[in-house]
Amino acid sequence: MPKDQLARVTSSELKERVVSCAIPRLPGNVDAQGTAIIQIQIDKDGNVQCARALSGHPIVRRAALDAAKKWSFEPLKVEGNPKPYSSLLSLVVHWNVHEMEKQCPKEKRRAPNQALLTTR
């Protein structure tokens, strides 16, 4: 989508718009940690349409990118109409799952390849 048709929201505004999220998962027995910056485009329904890793170690970037593609957000309305938008998403990738869980609240978390988890 041409950039002139996308609204921009700040990273902090984007975090407030999270509907569901996924925790980055490192492959196999990889003992890595770091932060990746992901540029995302969100369609008018709040789904990630396009994601691109801008920074981070390649292993960290892949884990963050795979997770970011599963996130969904509240639609952005401009003058009452839904509009696609873009932003930057900073994701921490860590061998300690508890550290990564902090960025994705349990009530909004998706299991890998699963629908939104619900809490009872």
Structure description:
- The protein is of the alpha/beta class and 120 residues long.
- It has a single domain (3-102), classed as TolA/TonB C-terminal domain (2-Layer Sandwich), CATH 3.30.2420.
- It is 18% helix and 36% strand.
- It has a four-stranded mixed β-sheet.
- Strand 3 (33-42) and strand 4 (48-53) form a beta hairpin.
- Residues 113-120 have low confidence and may be disordered.
Span between termini = 40 Å
What fraction of residues sit in β-strands? 35-45%
Strand tally: 9
Low-confidence runs: 113-120
Architecture, CATH level 2? 2-Layer Sandwich
Molecular shape: elongated
Average the pLDDT over all residues and give the rounded result.
85
CATH class: Alpha Beta
- Superfamily at the CATH H level? TonB
Would you kindly provide a brief summary of this structure?
This protein is α/β, with parallel strands linked by helices.
Keywords:
three-stranded mixed sheet; TolA/TonB C-terminal domain; elongated; single chain; 3 helices; 18% helix; disordered C terminus; alpha/beta; 120 residues
SSE blueprint and pairings:
Blueprint: E1 7-8, H1 11-16, E2 18-22, E3 33-42, E4 48-53, H2 58-68, E5 72-73, E6 76-78, E7 81-83, E8 85-94, H3 97-101, E9 109-110
Parallel strand pairs: 1-8, 2-9
Antiparallel strand pairs: 2-5, 3-4, 3-8, 6-7
